[in-house]
Amino acid sequence: MRIVVAGAAGFIGCHLSKRYLDDGHQVVGVDNLVTGSQANVDWLASLSGFTFVKHNVTRRFKIDGPVDLVCDLACPASPVDFGPLAIQILRVCSEGVLNLLELARAKNARFLHTSTSEVYGDPEVHPQREDYWGHVNPIGARSVYDEGKRYAEALIMAYHRKWGLPVRLARIFNTYGPRMRLDDGRVVTNFIRQALAGKPLTLYGDGSQTRSFCYVDDQVEGQVRLGACDYVGPINIGNPEEITVRQLAQEIIALTGSASRIVEKPMPPDDPKIRRPDIALAQKILGWQPRVSRQDGLRKTIDYCMQLK
Ligand code: UDP
């Protein structure tokens, strides 16, 4: 296949591109490098079959030649970006997704979109199944991302209904691993960075909020299977093993052998209190479930962070 990956310089985008290249496909990466990194592009450029276009997908663009699959992972995704990049996030979720849908339509290509567990907001149903409509504050600090991604899903399904475009929707849950941006403000990288530097780990609130962390190789495997299947509609791709953020801090202190302590900081507004995917649909439709334990995944991520130090 010839595959366009929007957001190829980002964390998950570069791993998905690498996987498709390893499987013998050609990948055209598109990214404006606002949160993606040149280092990830250079990593992919060393492999055969990869070409890169530096472009902001909110502006219309053309790709010459045939395209079989358009993967859309282009969006800043860390809560620390939701303030400074608020308008860009709303634009990439609307104009950006529209341009990528138009590209897929023009090329008769399949469209694989990376959506998010954030569409469930601060959930009142636990664990979250795909048929849960969510609990999102439409004007809150996280709304640019949550509502942006909800709008994107609506737009994608409208393209499917109106034009018969073959669309696939992955709702992904807290993914981590090597090549995450170390300064992207998310909990795994913050805690590892702080533990390795012997600095206090910054726990927001009392740390009783929960998340379910999925290692990037599992995430990519789920998305590749979703891209290859015929199911239209959202499928959760995440690891259902749920822990509190305080437990995560303790695990990272233990795995790094750090002498760091834990300090409590104010809780950001609208921070979801619980989050865990119900993956029954992914198991049934994709025959997929995560394989990498949190211990192993965190070890690999810590090793990666240590190399960068
Ligand atoms: N968090 C924390 N300390 C940090 C960064 C994040 O306690 O230094 C918490 C955050 O409040 C949230 C959880 O960790 O409850 C996951 O945050 P992250 O930004 O990684 O992802 P989210 O799931 O909120 O999008």
Cofactors, ions and other ligands in the entry? uridine-5'-diphosphate
Q: What is the overall pLDDT average?
A: 97
CATH hierarchy: architecture of the domain at 2-176 and 216-240 and 277-291: 3-Layer(aba) Sandwich
Shape: globular
The major pleated sheet works out as: 7 strands, parallel
The number of E-state strands comes to: 13
CATH fold description of the domain at 2-176 and 216-240 and 277-291: Rossmann fold
What is the H/E order? Answer: EHEHEEHEHEEHEEEHEEHEHH
What's the N-to-C terminus distance?
37 Å
Structural class label: alpha/beta
**Structural Rg:** 19 Å
Account of the 3D structure:
Helix content is 39%, strand content 18%. It has nine helices and 13 strands. With 309 residues, it is of the alpha/beta class. The mean pLDDT is 97. 44% of the residues are buried. Helix 1 packs across helix 6 (216-228). It starts with a strand and ends with a helix. The strands form four sheets. The chain has a seven-stranded parallel beta sheet with strand order 3-2-1-4-5-6-11, sandwiched between helices. The radius of gyration is 19 Å and the shape is globular. It has a domain at 2-176 and 216-240 and 277-291: Rossmann fold. The chain has helices at 11-22, 38-45, 86-107, 143-163, 187-196, 216-228, 245-256, 280-286, 294-308; strands at 2-6, 26-31, 50-54, 69-72, 110-116, 167-172, 175-176, 201-204, 210-212, 214-215, 234-237, 242-244, 262-265. The longest helix has 22 residues, at 86-107. The structure holds uridine-5'-diphosphate.
